[in-house]
Amino acid sequence: MICFLTAFADQTEGMTDITPMLIFIGKFFVAFGLIALMAVLTPKIAAKVDKIRENHKQKHPGDPNCSRVRGIYDLPPMPKTQPEADADSAEKDVET
């Protein structure tokens, strides 16, 4: 038995241990496999989220002109009915 172990030890003396390299390659493939899986699943998950958001979209009351706004300077001017009424009432208060 001892002769067998010493003979085996002599044969492994010139060999290189490839276990760390295999572990590194395994981790490499696992990492890139996860990245590939995320790249495939992300559009599918986004489509499901968009579908859920469309189903739960609430109509909120508001200014109908705001839905036509495309930029910061595209907001239509506000009607001037209220400020004129306030100015008239302020003039009446001054006269009395």
Alpha-beta classification: mainly alpha
Helix content: 55-70%
Secondary-structure element order, N to C: HHH
Biggest beta sheet summary: none
Instruction: Please work out how many helical segments DSSP would assign.
Output: 3
Report on the structure:
The longest helix has 37 residues, at 19-55. The protein has helices at residues 2-12, 19-55, 81-95. By secondary structure, it is mainly alpha-helical. The protein contains three helices and no strands. The protein is rod-shaped and about 95 Å long.
Topology:
Layout: H1 2-12, H2 19-55, H3 81-95
Properties at a glance:
single chain; 96 residues; mainly alpha
Brief overview:
The protein has 96 residues and is an all-alpha fold. The protein has three helices and no strands.
